[in-house]
Give the backbone structure.
Amino acid sequence: MTDMLTVIAGAVTLGAIYLGLAPRVATPLYRSMLFHPDRYPAGNYDLDSIEGISRKDVFFTSADGTRIHGWYFALPGAGKTILFHHGNAGNVSSRAPLIRLLLLAGASVLIYDYRGYGLSEGIPSVKGICDDGCAAFDYLTEVEGVNHDEIINYGESLGCAVACQVCTVRRGCALILQSGFSSLRKIGISVCPWVAIYPRFLFPKPDLDNIPVLKEHHDPLLILHGADDEVVPFLHGKEMFAAAAEPKQFVELPGAGHNGIADQQPEAYTMAIKSFLASLPRTTMCRELT
């Protein structure tokens, strides 16, 4: 009887440890792995303009009341506005080189910091950053007066998953995914192989699996991925493209890594964005001219 109780106690202990370390339960542990925010004043907050376009500091409120900060660059005569959901590290100021190229491609840009990044309040979480993305979309439509069919959800790395989540509940006119992973679980296993012991339901919700989103009807899609991406392997981009429904485009950026696209392939990147923008209906230009 004593041996049986020992076995049962051991099994219960192991079960408790297993569940206690599950990604959906041990959120503080996985938060430190997934999110690497730079809080203000880290970064370049002295930047007043990019390519002659003035920076506008904006603040808006996420679903739970968290105050979110962003930068808005309104390009005169732009046909589209890019809503920039950035990656898991740094803050808005880290993306100045990419913002510059997006402006040169002919789009206005709203980039915001997830909760816990830069000047945004709160602590990052999977659900929280998706709510922040929806709030940023609502800010564009409700405060800046941008039509929903003029907004492009643009995701960078982790932000690709946010962009995919946002586009399921806030329909824009297009979707751009740069350097993204096909699913959080898959990239998580490649970084921490031991999390493979956990089934999908023990990961945080939403599960940030981009494949099911892309398989369904979606806005026109452009996927860009550096061929030499050392953080999110190139195959993730190809996997998303293969699974995605039409309309879709894929642009490989030879020699580009994960974080250096703006320096390593600026011309190819800018031309890809410009060409994609040109393929979309120019609703804003028509409205401005009337």
User: Anything to note?
Assistant: The first helix runs from residue 2 to 20.
